Amino acid sequence: MRRVKVILAKEWSEALRIKMVLFSVAFLPLFMTGFATYLIWQGRALPPEAQAALLNTALMYFFILPVVIPLSIAAYSIVGEKEQGTLEPLLATPVRDWELFLGKALGPVIPGLILSWAAFGLFLAASAVILKGIPAGVLSLPWLLSIFALAPFLALFAVFVTMIVSSRTTDVRAAYQFSSLAILPALIPLFVYIGRLTAVNLVFVGIEAGIVIPLDAVTFGIAVRLFRREEILTRWK
Amino acid sequence: MIRAEGLTRKFGDVVAVEGLSFEVRKGEIVALLGPNGAGKTTTVRMLSCLIAPTAGRAWVDGHGIHEDPEEVRAVVGALTETPGLYKRLSAWHNLRFFAELYGVPDAGARIERYLRFFGLWERRDEPVATYSKGMRQKLALARALIHEPKVLLLDEPTAGLDPESARAVRDFIAELRSEGRAILLCTHNLPEAERVCDRIMLLKTRLIAEGTPEELKRRLFGTRVVVELANPAPELARDLDVPGVKALQVSQGRLYVEVEDPRRTNPILVRKLVELGAEIISVREEEATLEDVYHELMEEADAAG
Q1: Burial level of B64, CB count in 10 A (0-12/13-18/19+)?
Q2: At B243, is the secondary structure helix, strand, or coil?
Q3: Is-contact A187 A180, C-beta < 8 A?
Q4: Tens digits of per-residue pLDDT, A28-70?
């Protein structure tokens, strides 16, 4: 795990120096927090049941944030190394494929989660001030589990898919375009919530976790297997 | 330290390297010379386990490239064709990253040593994007050395450097040899190869020739003796019959004689010339350059197809 941490630290050092990445990473949580808070402000005069429904809807934004934030960094991860010409020296070190992939995946996921949770806390604090307390039944255990336990695995899934794309495409723009598709599986639970196809209860969260966690493991395995050092070094121009 | 046996690499139908066998011993610098597309980079990539050979085997410090790729990478320091540095990061960050990947103990002191040696210490915190081409090349060389590798694979180490820096790097490479490292140096710079390397391998997909620069020159051209004459006469070339002379020619007041063994032939040559009435102003040996050898062998390889 030592090399995973080293790659993680390098990814952060580099990302902190790219203004565009900083902007795209910081903008979305700020925008979502502002927009969700505005909704609550608009509904401050509604009856408590309606306020609770409004708050529940707003919570969904914070469920999807950790999935969306890391994608721009993840798309750049492998193809960006190739574009800079740094992939060959990197691959000439004793780093293993899985270490490289995990380091590069955790690089964008961890700040994405921290920012999302910070935005979530800010939103809750603002809502509590506006509504003079959080309506009963809003912060249920299934919701909290979804945001704090399930979202990281959904984020990892989206990042693994994006990195597969990044290691198979030859330029950054193509990686960005294809990576937007990686978010789709993460939207499925949201469609279920929005369509009221089932209640957000512990059973549903358990089923989701039972699908997403093994899916993460499988996707990670596929990502590592599909990473062909030779092909990347000899065919990418 | 490096041993290759029948290394072959094909890309589809294109053969990049064919049946390459060689050895680089501890404390030896061997140059890999050849034109673009000769297979130098492919060879270096196979030896650093970046690509697998289609056929053949190789060992680096006793580790097989097939069996132990991670061990091979741990003992190899590779300088790639392009510096390949993280341009947004500083020199310090670049070296720190690679030092940590290799698990270098006391990385800070070693980074400082190399940054100071290459004259980059004062600008260690500036992004590499602001560096000149030469500074980047030096930093890439420092990166290749940061884990004190036993084997160095250097692709054009002095490319882009000013003459002073290039000389410092060459001296440094020679110093690395004295530390017992095995160095394979790919270069187009023939004088550099001649100056720094113990042996030279000429590659054009296949290994065309191998030997010390002197061996290669003698094998191909022997030694040329230039005799400056006060009374050059074309018939001298016809009348001169000396054992050990391979070829001779009179041109612009000079007699050019190719001999196999100058120590044995030169005294006889001078005596015969005097006997033939030649008035000798000077006699000196003129060796073929490595460039002559290179071109001759490449032409032969082209002719052989």
Answers
A1: middle
A2: coil
A3: no
A4: 888 989 998 998 888 888 888 888 878 877 887 888 888 888 8
This complex has an ipTM of 0.82
Domains of chain B: 2-217 (3.40.50.300), 223-287 (3.30.70.100)
What SS3 string covers B291-304? HHHHHHHHHHHHHH
Distance between CA atoms of residues B17 and B54, nearest Å:
9
B22-71 pLDDT, tens digit per residue, is 999 999 999 998 888 889 989 999 999 989 999 999 999 999 999 999 99
The tokens for A204 are 């549903």
B23: nearest Cα among B131, B184, B250, B167? B184
Residues 6+ apart with CB under 8 A from A97: A224, A227, A229
Q: Given the structure tokens 């780093």, which residue do they identify?
A: A95
Q: Which residues contact A198 (CB under 8 A, 6 or more apart)?
A: A192, A204
Q: With 0-12 CB in 10 A as exposed, 13-18 as middle and 19+ as buried, what is A201?
A: exposed
| Contacts A94 to B, Cβ<8 Å | 70-71, 73-74, 101-102
End-to-end CA distance of chain A: 31
Chain A, chain B: beta-carbon pairs less than 8 Å apart: 76
Residues composing chain B: 305
Closest CA of chain B from A74, distance in Å: 17
* Closest of B20, B28, B32 to residue B186, by C-alpha: B32
Domain locations in chain A? 2-235
Distance between CA B125 and CA B43 in Å, rounded?
A: 35
Mind telling me how many Å the CA of B109 is from chain A's nearest CA? 18
**Facing residue for B88 by CB, picked from A7, A14, A94:** A14
